[in-house]
Design goal:
Shape: globular
Pfam family, one: WHD_HRQ1
Helix content: 25-40%
Distance between the termini: 35 Å
Organism: Streptomyces mordarskii
Largest sheet: 7 strands, mixed
Strand order of the largest sheet: 1-9-16-15-12-14-13
GO molecular function: helicase activity
Region (Disordered): 1-22
Keywords: ATP-binding, Helicase, Hydrolase, Nucleotide-binding
């Protein structure tokens, strides 16, 4: 952020080593730290701004307390002014915002002095509303001395209708998100004609978040933007920023469709970072199939947040689920009330699904220091400026190294030392990582995986493009090689009609409404309080079956609600306030069939395959678990309709001879395959930018399509998201890490830390840990004899 470099009011920043030392005192606390990584402080390297940056902009930056830029900021600005699309991929809090803001503001000032017309414009895209609002505050602070030459405004779903016309007519720096670009700006481009005609720069912040299905959609939205801009005579330069990106130029070019220069050498200074890996202890409880159970990451993280708040250490605790964020805040508040009645009010939850006014109030309280601790989902992970944080607790590995470093980087953003703690969940990947720290600290972040040619992604964007401007033959190349093959299908389905030399959208409904670029699929389900009719928030349609089914516990702003009815036709879940002593977890059953095998390679007698599949799954029941311990209290049946998914998968088969070699007897085969499937899903996020909730799996002792024992791992999104393909290309390393994770676990017969899955529809039965290790050993022996799958 540009304002990461602005000096802030001095405060007390305790030594991260001292804070960790206090946290580790007490019965058994020290043994929970499996590794501590010390990242030493780093000095900064200055440079000079390019001579083309206007002196007024340089003076405004100096007035903010920044005398000279870091070397990477100056290089980025130089490329931007030269007209090169560029991605700056340097560390968190390295001042990436200033790297693109300096050339953007300078160019906008140049344009504001033109005698006629609107002058030059720029568009800023962020993945979240919160980040765009935060950037708007930063720009306002920086540009105050520049007068009216810079007219920055946020344009998103929260912008009042009466303000939108002013933004369209007068703003020259518009901050929005890909969703608004897709649904609002591009379909209404004639009203934006003067802005688009003058568009010089498109800033894409936190570009590493555009991965999988969402990233593939955004890639096509950007191609639509380039096409509409060309219609008005402009060809904007793309400026991208990410604190965590592997092969940033390749990823940025695939996202935008244009060549991109990368800046990766970080010239900014960094304070000391102490990074602890923390494993909760085993409890006396036993879970499914008698497996030992660890204390939950939720309970452990709530304890750490409580202890840090008592020490006066400003902390954000990141948690993967909305429910988890609410639960951690609630537990911490209750425990703090026993210490000091003033402290609970200084802890809150922050997650997606809140109403706009709730989000804004929390952001303001965080900025002001009124809040001492926050339990947040990834809605707060991105580049929002959170001044003065001392510590970050990450409740469970967030799915990728990229997200882990992004979250850890929220602390110490003013150059002081920072403490980061990763609390492991009872999960194969978390357990593997806290005992293999090199996998976190000695490896680059993952490659960003996206597939703009996915027909489920591409088809609706071709329709949207045709609705914006009739599609011509020269346009087809812009949208990728799969376009020509899709056009006849869209004509057959009567979505497009060819007239003379162009394809037209002929339907009455809006073409942009054909797809949800977040990949949610369908209208969000509204969560409504039955007694009052009050709207509490929303849940994505794809998650409704598992999160707001009848009997589910729904948490909102620290209050618990029970779902009394889920109306799928009207997309409404009716809830009533309650205080059950349990949480709920949905279970489903899954079947899979092979539609097409795209690629197949031998691994000895085994086969490794990649292709298209159809998955049918149905939520059939839900478990009730004790809040703190996770102990299962009971299971209730559900009657929900099945859902069908056509997607991409990687799968492997083994022969009877290999089973005999691995000493996997017929009665153990189902458990061996099932255990290998669970563990491989848990480990795949080390090799692709996904987490286990992006992917699914099925294992079958005799699959009807292969006629062999088969394990499938598939993308959980229509048409695929690129994760299974990445798994295919890295299969030898991926499955070797899977085998090692199972073998290294200290349990006897299998547990949630190695082969049990939190989302298994079969109650984690059957599972055979020892047979799975022998089976994977035999499979990998065949893999060693073969060349790796081509990237």
């Amino acid at each position: 952020m540009a304002h990461d470099q602005i000096p802030r009011q001095a405060g007390i920043h305790p030594s991260p080593r001292a804070v960790l030392g206090r946290l580790s005192t007490g019965a058994g606390r020290g043994a929970r730290i499996t590794h501590t990584e010390h990242l030493p402080p780093r000095p900064g390297t200055h440079a000079d701004w390019p001579s083309a940056i206007r002196p007024e902009v340089i003076n405004a930056i100096r007035a903010a307390g920044i005398d000279r830029p870091w070397a990477h900021q100056a290089r980025t600005a130089e490329h931007a002014l030269r007209g090169d699309s560029v991605v700056v991929a340097t560390g968190t809090a390295s001042g990436k915002s200033l790297a693109y803001l300096a050339p953007v503001l300078s160019t906008l000032l140049d344009g504001s002095e033109e005698p006629n017309g609107r002058g030059t414009t720029a568009l800023y895209l962020s993945p979240t509303k919160a980040l765009a609002a935060d950037q708007r505050r930063a720009v306002a602070g920086l540009t105050a001395p520049l007068g009216t030459g810079i007219r920055a405004a946020v344009y998103d779903g929260d912008t009042p209708v009466e303000e939108r016309e002013w933004v369209r007519q007068y703003a020259n720096y518009v901050l929005t998100n890909p969703d608004m670009l897709h649904r609002g700006i591009l379909p209404g481009h004639p009203r934006w004609s003067s802005f688009l005609r003058a568009l010089r720069y498109v800033v894409i912040d936190e570009c590493h978040t555009y991965r999988g299905v969402f990233g593939s959609h955004v890639a096509q939205v950007l191609r639509r933007l380039r096409r509409v801009c060309a219609r008005y005579g402009s060809s904007p330069v793309f400026l991208l920023a990410s604190a965590t990106a592997s092969d940033p130029a390749v990823a940025a070019s695939r996202l935008t469709g244009v060549p991109v220069v990368e800046i990766t050498e970080d010239g900014s200074p960094r304070g000391e970072v102490v990074f602890a890996l923390w494993e909760p202890p085993l409890t006396e409880l036993h879970g499914e199939q008698g497996a030992p159970v660890r204390r939950t990451a939720t309970a452990e993280s709530a304890d750490l947040l409580t202890d840090l708040a008592v020490q006066g250490v400003r902390t954000v605790t990141f948690v993967r689920s909305r429910r988890g964020a609410e639960l951690i805040a609630l537990i911490a508040q209750e425990r703090l009330a026993e210490v000091d009645r003033s402290l609970p009010d200084r802890i809150a939850a922050y997650r997606g699904g809140y109403l706009p006014e709730e989000r804004r109030a929390l952001e303001k309280a965080l900025h002001s220091g009124e809040l001492l601790g926050l339990a947040a989902t990834t809605a707060l992970e991105l580049g929002m400026d959170i001044a003065g944080l001392d510590a970050v607790v990450v409740a469970g590995y967030p799915g990728t190294r990229a997200s882990l470093w992004q979250q850890a980087g929220r602390a110490g953003r003013t150059g002081e030392g920072a403490l980061a703690i990763l609390v492991a969940r009872d999960d194969p990947l978390d357990t593997y990582l806290v005992h293999h720290p090199d996998a976190l600290f000695r490896q680059p972040v993952e490659s960003t995986v996206l597939d703009p040619d996915n027909p489920y992604v591409l088809a609706p964007h071709l329709c949207a493009a045709a609705a914006e401007l009739p599609l011509t033959e020269p346009d087809l190349k812009l949208f990728g090689p799969a376009t020509e093959e899709l056009m006849p299908q869209l004509e057959q389905r009567k979505l497009l009609r060819r007239r003379a030399t162009a394809w037209h959208w002929t339907r009455r409904e809006r073409a942009a409404d054909l797809t949800d670029i977040r990949g949610a699929g369908g209208s969000p389900v509204q969560v409504v309080e039955a007694a009052t009719g009050r709207l509490l928030g929303t849940v994505d349609a794809a998650a409704a079956h598992t999160t707001v089914h009848e009997g589910a516990v729904h948490l909102h702003q620290g209050r618990s609600y029970l779902v009394r009815q889920l109306d799928l036709d009207d997309s409404v879940a009716l809830v009533e306030e309650a205080a059950p002593p349990y949480s709920t977890t949905a279970r489903d059953t899954t079947a899979i069939s092979i539609l097409e095998t795209t690629t197949e390679i031998p691994w000895g007698d085994a086969r490794l395959c990649f292709g298209s599949v159809e998955v049918t799954h149905q939520v059939v029941s839900f478990l009730r678990r004790k809040l703190i311990t996770g102990e299962v209290l009971g299971e209730s049946k559900l009657d929900l309709p099945p859902r069908t998914l056509r997607t991409r998968a990687v799968w492997w088969t083994v022969t009877d001879d290999q089973l005999e070699e691995a000493r996997v007897h017929p009665q153990a085969l189902g458990g061996a395959l099932h255990a290998a499937e669970h563990a491989s899903i848990g480990i795949l996020p080390l090799f692709a930018t996904c987490d286990r909730w992006d992917i699914g799996g099925v294992s079958v002792p005799l699959h009807p399509d292969t006629l062999l024992p088969t394990v499938f791992v598939y993308d959980g999104h229509p048409g695929g998201a690129g994760f299974a393909e990445r798994a295919f290309h890295t299969a030898a390393r991926w499955l070797a890490a899977t085998r090692e994770a199972i073998a290294a676990c200290e349990c006897e017969a299998g547990c949630p830390s190695c082969i049990q899955s939190p989302k298994c529809g079969n109650g984690n039965d059957p599972l055979d840990k020892k047979a799975a290790i022998r089976l994977l050993t035999t499979l990998l022996a065949g893999a060693a004899e073969q060349p790796p799958a081509a990237e």
